[in-house]
Amino acid sequence: MSDVSNTLGGTPTKDGAFLSVRDLKVHFTTSDGIVKATDGLSFDLERGKTLGIVGESGSGKSVSSSAIMGLHRGTNAKLSGEILLDGVDLLHVSDEEMRKRRGRDVAMIFQDPLSAMHPYYTVGNQIMEAYQVHNDVTKREARKRAIEMLDRVGIPQPDRRVDDYPHQFSGGMRQRAMIAMGLINNPSLLIADEPTTALDVTVQAQILDLLQDLQRDFDAAIIIITHDLGVVAEMADDVLVMYAGRAVEYGPGKEILTHPEMPYTWGLLSSVPDLTASTEAKLIPIRGNPPSLLNPPPGCPFEPRCDHVAKVGGDLCKTVLPELTPARSGGNHTKRCHLENPDEVYEAEILPEIAPDLVED
Amino acid sequence: MSDTTTAAATSVAPASTETVLSVENLKMHFPVKGSGVIRRTVGHVKAVDGVSFEVAKGTALGLVGESGCGKSTTGRMVTRLYKPTEGKINFEGTDIANYTGRQLHPMRREIQMIFQDPSTSLNPRHTVGSIIGAPLRIHKMVPKDKVLSRVQELLEIVGLNPEHYNRYPHEFSGGQRQRIGIARALTLQPKLLVADEPVSALDVSIQAQVINLLQDLQKEFDISFLFIAHDLAIVRHFCPEVAVMYLGKIVEIGDRESIYERAHHPYTQALLSAVPDVKQAAIGGRRERIRLEGDVPSPINPPSGCHFRTRCAIAKDICSVVEPPLLQIGKKHKVACHFPGEIHQHPEKPVTAPLLGVDEFGAPDPGASPAEVPGDGPGYADTWYDLANNSRGRA
C-alpha cells in the first residue's frame, strides 16, 4: 500500500479524496490527425467507494482507466492533466516507480479473462508472479498465498486447481482467478474494465457479490467500467457518464439514475428494456452513431443525435461546448447540457416513456 | 397456476394460430474421441437432449439459458447446419430432420439465420452488395440484372444507405454490420428466422435500434422468430413465448406472463433474480436474490435424475433418482420440476411422483401405476395438471 505521501503534483486534492483525476487528456497522434480519446476528464474517488463509468464503445472509458494504470507509457499517446493517487501524481512518476505501483497500489481486471491470461503458464504461476514481483518471498510462500487467494475468491479445491492452465477453467472461474491476481497485493485501487460483460447473468451476480465482499474486507476503491446500467445501479456509489471522451454527467449514482439531466443519459435509460416494463412499448433507441473522435462536432458532441436541440434555441448546441455545470437538483450532481430546465423535460417527456408507474409522485 | 377463467379459455381456442415450426424430442449428441491412434469414441456431449417446442406463425419463441445449455445448438439444428442425432423438425408439416443437402436446398429459402457476431459472419473480402446478393443468385430468385436493385431495396429496408452496396463490411460500424446480416437473412423472404444472440455484441443504444428493426420486419413480413439470447430483459421484450434451457433440456416453457411473473422452476427463478435492475438505484444496494453456487455441470456426464439438482436449493431425494418430466401446469406453461411452485411456495411432496408411479423418494411404488403426463409433446394440451388441487385441470 502507498505509504509514501510525498506530494509530487503539488495541488491539494479535493477534500482528501484518495484518487483524484484532474483534467485528464489522452490524445493519440495518427496519420489522419489527433484522436482525442479522453478530453478533460475529472473525478474523485474515496476509499471503500465505487465509481461506475458508463458509455458506448469508443467513449473513452477504457482509455482513461488505462491511463491511471500507466499503460500508455511507451506508446505515442500524449497525456496531460493530473492523476493523484494518495497525493502522488501518477503521470509524473518515473517508469520504474510506476512499475512498482502497478499491481501493488493500482490493479486492473480485464474484460476477457481468456485473452488476459497467458495460455502457456498455469493459473497459479501467473498469480504467484504478481505476488513475487512486489514482495520478497520464496516460491513456496508465494504459492501458499496464491492458493489462499484462489480460496478467497471461491475456487473449489484451490490447492489442486492452482496447477491448472487457464483453458481448464470455466469463464466464471477465469474471471475469479483474474480477481485473485488483481487483489493479491491488497491494492488500494481496483479498476474493473467490463468485468462481467462476457459472463452469464448468474455468474455475473456471483462476481459482483465477490467484488463487493472483497471491497468491504480490503477497503479498496473500485472503478467499474460497464455499459450495463443495471450493474451500475447495484454497484456504484458515484456514476460518471462518458460521451466522446468527456464526462457528460457525473454525480451520486442514485441522482444520476433517478433524476438524469442530460439527454444522452436519458437515451441510455430508455434504450434498455427492463424486466417489469410494458412489452407493448417500443424501445427508444438513440438515433445515429457516436461521432468520430478525429474531428468531433464543434459544439456539444451529442448534438447530432439529440432530440432536444430545439428547446435550447439558436445555434448554441451546434457551436458552443456546454460546460460541466451543477444540475438543477443540486448536490454534487453535474451535467454538460445547454438545456435550461432538464429536470422538467425529464419529468414531462422522458419519465412517462421509461417508467410510467413512477410519474404521478 | 391455472387461473381457470373461462372467459380467457374460450378466447384462445387451441391451434387457432398456424404452427410454422414444431420440434419434437430433438437430440444432438457430439461424440468425444479418445486420444491415441484409433480415436475411438469414448463418450458423448449431450448438447441438446430431447427438446420439444412449437413456433406459431408471426410470433417469436425465445430460448434463454446460460452458455453451454444448448440453445445455439438447437438453433443450428433448426436451420439444419447440424444434422440432429434424433428427433423431428417439422417445418410446415414436413420433417426436415433427415433431409439431405439437395433436399434442403429449397428449404434454405424458408429458414434463415442471423448470427451473433456481425464482424465474423460477413466475408471481409466481399462487398455488401455481393454478400446480400449471393442468396438471390444461388436461388435464382430474380434475373441477374435485377439483383442489384433488389439488394438496394433490401439495404433500404434495414435502414442503410442503398448507395453503399459497393462498400466492404469493415467500412461499417457494428450496428450497421448487424443490419447487413439481417438484410442477408431477409433476401429470400424466409418464413422463419433463427436469430442467435443478434444484439449481444452491440452497444445498448444500438441494441434498441436493431430490436426495433426486427420487430418492424416481423410485422411487415409476418416472419416467425426463434430468438436465442441470454439477456432476459430483451427476450421478454421481443418474445411472447419463452423457453428456458439448462444442460440440453427445456426446464420451463410458457408464455411471457407465466415465465416472468409466475416462474415455477427454481432455475428460472434464480436466472430472473440475477438480472441487475436499473430501478435498484432508487433503493440502493444489491437486490435480494437467489444465489446459484458453482458452475453448470459437464454435459458429457450430467447429474443423474434432474440435471439442475446439484445447484438447486430445494432438491430432495427424488431429484437424484427420477428425471422430472415436462409437466403442463397451465394453459401455456410447462415446467420440469418435481416441486414446481412460485418462490418460497414450492410444495413439500413431489407432485410428479404419482404420475410417474414412484413414491416420494423416487423408488418404484408398487401401489401406483404410471399415468400419462400432461404436456408431453411439442405443443400445449387442452388439459393440464392443476397444482392447486393436485388434479387434472382444464380450460
Question: What layout of secondary structure does this protein have?
Answer:
The complex is a heterodimer of chains A (361) and B (395).
Chain A: E1 19-30, E2 33-45, E3 50-54, H1 61-69, E4 77-85, E5 88-89, H2 95-101, E6 106-109, H3 113-116, H4 123-134, H5 139-152, H6 158-161, H7 171-183, E7 189-193, H8 201-218, E8 221-225, H9 229-235, E9 238-243, E10 246-252, H10 253-258, H11 263-271, H12 316-319, E11 325-326, E12 334-335, H13 342-354
Parallel strand pairs in A: 3-8, 3-9, 6-7, 7-8
Antiparallel strand pairs in A: 1-2, 1-4, 4-5, 9-10, 10-12, 11-12
Helix pairs in contact in A: 4-5, 4-7, 5-7, 7-8, 11-13
Chain B: H1 6-11, E1 19-33, E2 41-56, E3 60-64, H2 71-78, E4 86-91, E5 94-95, H3 101-108, E6 111-114, H4 128-138, H5 147-157, H6 174-186, E7 192-196, H7 204-221, E8 224-228, H8 232-238, E9 241-246, E10 249-255, H9 256-261, H10 266-274, H11 280-283, H12 317-321, E11 327-330, E12 333-335, H13 353-356, E13 383-386, E14 391-394
Parallel strand pairs in B: 3-8, 3-9, 6-7, 7-8
Antiparallel strand pairs in B: 1-2, 1-4, 4-5, 9-10, 10-12, 11-12, 13-14
Helix pairs in contact in B: 4-5, 4-6, 5-6, 6-7
Question: Overview of this structure, please?
Answer:
Chain A: GO terms for molecular function: ATP binding; ATP hydrolysis activity. Chain A: Pfam families: ABC_tran, oligo_HPY. The complex is a heterodimer of chains A (361) and B (395). Chain A is an alpha/beta fold. Chain A has helices at residues 61-69, 95-101, 113-116, 123-134, 139-152, 158-161, 171-183, 201-218, 229-235, 253-258, 263-271, 316-319, 342-354; strands spanning 19-30, 33-45, 50-54, 77-85, 88-89, 106-109, 189-193, 221-225, 238-243, 246-252, 325-326, 334-335. Chain A has two domains: 16-236, Rossmann fold (3-Layer(aba) Sandwich), CATH 3.40.50.300; 254-358, no CATH class. Chain A is 33% helix and 20% strand. An eight-stranded mixed sheet of chain A has the order 6-7-8-3-9-10-12-11, sandwiched between helices. Chain A has a four-stranded antiparallel sheet with strand order 2-1-4-5. In chain A, helix 4 (123-134) packs across helix 5 (139-152) and helix 11 runs parallel beside helix 13. With 395 residues, chain B is α/β, with parallel strands linked by helices. In chain B, helix 4 (128-138) packs parallel to helix 6 and helix 6 (174-186) runs parallel beside helix 7. The model of chain B is unreliable at 1-16 (pLDDT under 50). Chain B has helices at residues 6-11, 71-78, 101-108, 128-138, 147-157, 174-186, 204-221, 232-238, 256-261, 266-274, 280-283, 317-321, 353-356; strands at residues 19-33, 41-56, 60-64, 86-91, 94-95, 111-114, 192-196, 224-228, 241-246, 249-255, 327-330, 333-335, 383-386, 391-394. Chain B has 13 helices and 14 strands. In chain B, the strands form three sheets. In chain B, strands 6-7-8-3-9-10-12-11 form an eight-stranded mixed sheet, with helices on both faces. A four-stranded antiparallel sheet of chain B has the order 2-1-4-5. Chain B has a domain at 6-34 and 41-249: Rossmann fold (3-Layer(aba) Sandwich).
